[in-house]
Write a structure and sequence with these properties.
Helix content: 10-25%
Largest sheet: 15 strands, mixed
Number of strands: 21
Number of helices: 10
Structural class: alpha+beta
Distance between the termini: 101 Å
Strand content: 15-25%
Shape: elongated
């Protein structure tokens, strides 16, 4: 009895599966014995040959890119990417056994098998390296693996509609011993532009899980934002041919600073106090009424380290440092110095502290801020090392610092050619679903002129008042305190209520620390005056949760009292009212609590 092609395909599938698993081989029809023997010999040959890991990662990256594009277009479940070598052979084996029985046995399948393995063997042993797995702009440090190259069945780059095909990747040193780089967009969502923390890729990081589709559930067609879908691209300059390779560096992404290093950096800023960590409120659990709380926290608070000096604060988190000086912000309308004047002040501030011990460039990312970027082997790292804000008075208000002082070179990786990248743009368009490197204009770029700013009429009418205090004033407020405890337990808790530092007996501060992030009524005496204010604590008590009070109304002057007639009908006394409030002026009043005053009004 003659078997159908479907039956023969199943027999060949079972035979090759057993061959791969090393189990007992099943019987096989003579009609496919020749194909089975050929495939078995080739599989054995491939198993004995150590594959080029760069080529293998290249194939995985191209398959991942193709699968990602199909997923976005169809919103259909996606088969997980093979993570081990056996999965790669499994993929090839499935091609041999014709799961989609559209090919006949015989010469065609033999050509496909021989062609695929011949291509693999040549790629594994030739001196020509595969295409780049680390696509890097000329002015950036290479940190991510490219995943935008399409692939067809024979492993060559899919040509575009133009006549010119991409040039092959240039020959370079052997990269088989280099670690595989992370795939852009893999391993937990979109990555930030640049930055540290990306470890070498693992099997888990390069695989994706398919999402199940239940029953007859309707799935809306996904919206793909593509504003340049109909654009025609024209290139009128020759393709650059350099560079052909780039050194990839790795910077630790977390736990960069030891306690000793934190102390040393704080001393550079003239801050010699204890190191603190923030105390967070009790975790909030996502529970159903009547059900017990889960054993695992819904949210695990991060670990920040802080050093304080009066109104100055220095915070450390993973690989980032942030400095803020509240004393230079007299109010919420602080003006910043123009970039041209601010840049030398920011540069001198860092140089005095020995923080600019590397080649760098200075530019303005936006507004008047100053950014400083490290230059590595002649290339500018697109992730700034420093962002600095300088006030109109020439004072440093804030400084963000992401050090790249622990860079380790992973090796030299080949780059995609500019021509190939151009072909990829023509073929696949722009992928708006992934993060891309931010580049900045060159030195010859002329910024467009900014037109004169014309304020709206309401802006001139807008005014803002915040209650101010002088030294010795009594103060009562309701606040949700921020609590910081000394790492070594060698200092009293550091507690902030609104913008005020709370001073008091150690026992009172220790007791108040248990109410971090909870509403507390604070009574005390202002020390220092606004804005460099502290409160000398005289009394405190926890209160019920407060709602922010916001009311619209009209100012009414009644002798020495300044009253607020709310639109809802109630009248309130405005304590320490601003002198420029006029009778009949419409205002909005806001605060945490409303309390009974001494007179007829609250």
């Amino acid at each position: 009895m003659n078997k159908t092609e479907q039956e023969l395909a199943y027999e060949l599938d079972a035979f090759l599966t057993a061959q791969l698993q090393g189990s007992r081989l099943p019987s096989l029809d003579e009609a496919v014995a020749g194909e089975a023997q050929l495939a078995a010999d080739l599989l054995q040959l491939a198993a004995n040959l150590e594959p080029d890991p760069v080529f293998l990662s290249d194939v995985e990256a191209q398959l991942a890119a193709a699968a990602s594009r199909q997923q976005k277009l169809r919103n259909m479940p996606e088969r997980p990417l093979p993570a081990k070598r056996s999965s790669f052979w499994q993929m090839i084996k499935e091609g041999f056994t014709m799961k989609r029985t559209t090919l006949a046995f015989g010469t065609l399948i033999t050509i496909v098998v021989v062609g695929v393995f011949a291509f693999f063997l040549m790629r594994g042993n030739s001196g020509t390296e595969p295409e780049a797995i680390a696509g890097v702009p000329e002015t950036a440090v290479a940190t991510e693996q490219s995943n935008t190259t399409d692939a067809n069945t024979n492993g060559e780059t899919t040509p575009s509609s133009t006549e010119t095909s991409p040039s092959p990747a240039p020959s370079s040193t052997d990269t088989s011993s280099l670690p595989k780089l992370p795939v852009l967009g893999q391993g937990g969502g979109a990555r930030g532009v640049g930055g540290g923390g990306g470890g070498v890729a693992t099997d888990a990081a390069t695989s994706e899980e398919a999402l199940p589709v239940e029953g007859d559930m309707m799935i809306d067609e996904p919206f793909i934002w593509n504003p340049l879908a109909e654009a025609q691209y024209t290139l009128n300059i020759p393709f650059p041919t350099e560079p052909t390779a780039a050194t990839v560096y790795q910077q630790p992404g977390k736990d960069v600073f030891t306690i000793e290093e934190i102390q040393q950096i704080a001393q550079l800023f003239g801050m010699n106090g204890p190191i603190y960590t923030e105390v967070y409120p009790e975790p909030i659990y996502d529970t159903v009424e009547g059900e017990p709380a889960p054993d695992v926290r819904e949210w695990i608070p991060p670990t920040y380290y802080y050093v304080f000096d009066g109104q100055r604060q220095l915070s450390f988190y993973d690989a980032n440092i942030y400095y803020f000086d509240q004393s230079v912000t007299q109010d919420y309308t602080v003006e910043m110095m123009p970039f041209e004047q601010a840049a030398p002040i920011a540069e001198a501030f860092l140089q005095e502290r020995g923080l600019l011990d590397f080649p760098y460039v200075i530019s303005s990312p936006w507004g008047n801020d100053v950014q400083i970027m490290r230059v590595i082997n002649g290339y500018v790292n697109t992730t700034a090392e420093f962002y600095i804000s300088v006030t109109q008075n020439g004072e440093i208000m804030s400084l963000s610092y992401q050090p790249f002082n622990k860079l380790a070179a992973l090796g030299d990786y080949p780059l995609r050619s500019a021509e190939e990248a151009w072909q990829d743009l023509l073929t696949n368009g722009i992928d708006y679903m992934h993060s891309y490197w931010i580049t900045y204009p060159g030195t010859d770029y002329v910024m467009p002129e900014v037109g004169e700013y014309v304020p709206s009429p309401w802006e001139e009418q807008y005014r803002y008042w915040q209650r101010t205090f002088v030294d010795g004033d009594p103060i009562t407020l309701v606040s949700y305190p921020l609590v910081y405890l000394a790492v070594n337990g060698d200092a009293a808790p550091h507690i902030m209520v609104d913008q005020y530092l709370l001073n008091g007996a150690d026992a009172d501060l220790q007791a108040l620390a248990a109410y971090a992030g909870q509403p507390v009524r604070i009574e005390g005496i202002v020390r220092g005056g606004t804005p460099n204010s502290a409160i000398e604590l005289t009394n405190w008590a926890p209160v019920d949760n407060q709602e922010w009070q916001y009311m619209a109304g009209t100012v009414r002057l009644d002798g020495d009292q300044v009253l607020f007639d709310a639109d809802e009908g109630e009248t309130f006394v405005i304590p320490s009212a601003p002198a420029d409030l006029t009778d009949g002026e419409r205002v909005n009043l806001s605060g945490w609590s409303i309390e009974r005053g001494d007179g007829a009004y609250r």
